[in-house]
What does this fold into?
Amino acid sequence: MKKPVVVYQSKYGATKKYAEWIAAELACDIYRRSDVKASDLEPYDPILYGGGLYAGGVNGIDLLTKNFNALCGKNLILFTCGLSDPSDQDNTDHIKSSLSKVLTAPMQEKIKVFHLRGAIDYARLGPIHKAMMAVLHKMTARKDFQSLREEDKQMLATYGKAVDFTDRAAILPIIQYVQAILSHADQEEAKNSRGH
Ligand SMILES: Cc1cc2nc3c(=O)[nH]c(=O)nc-3n(C[C@H](O)[C@H](O)[C@H](O)COP(=O)(O)O)c2cc1C
It folds into this structure.
């Protein structure tokens, strides 16, 4: 029987919240990225990895990229957690284009990607992140507002505040995807055992 696992890296807690919701729904093991090595994932399939989006990159995604050869025989699922609205295709295209810089073509083919919407509380940001957001805000505020992408307009509107878009219902497509893998594997197992 296939046994899923959720691994995540979360700086301020939004990805952790989603990872915990997903693991609870699938009744599976869950680990922080810092607590596992690729070899610890050997008993698991599918492997779900979740990381926060920072300047287009996914926190801790090297778990999948550096260990791709060891993991590529398994079902691999990546969920990103960022502030931009994943129901806007412009945003998901933007994330996809950033991901294509770190995921090779075989990785892109193999890894099923989902996007979830996170949270930000400027009062809780560490000094480096605060400075990065200040620079981004300054650069964006200088541009012609009408020409901005929706994501940038929202960043200007929420700059300095606390916003939380985390939503348990948003994990449903991920759960359904994993359940389909598990039930297909069960059917194959039953077919094989009948054949013997
Ligand atoms: C410095 C910085 C850069 C960020 N870059 C992005 C980004 O490129 N795209 C995005 O959608 N969200 C971005 N965010 C928002 C985070 O992805 C969001 O806060 C997310 O919930 C973080 O998840 P975590 O707390 O689990 O790490 C950024 C936040 C910070 C502080």
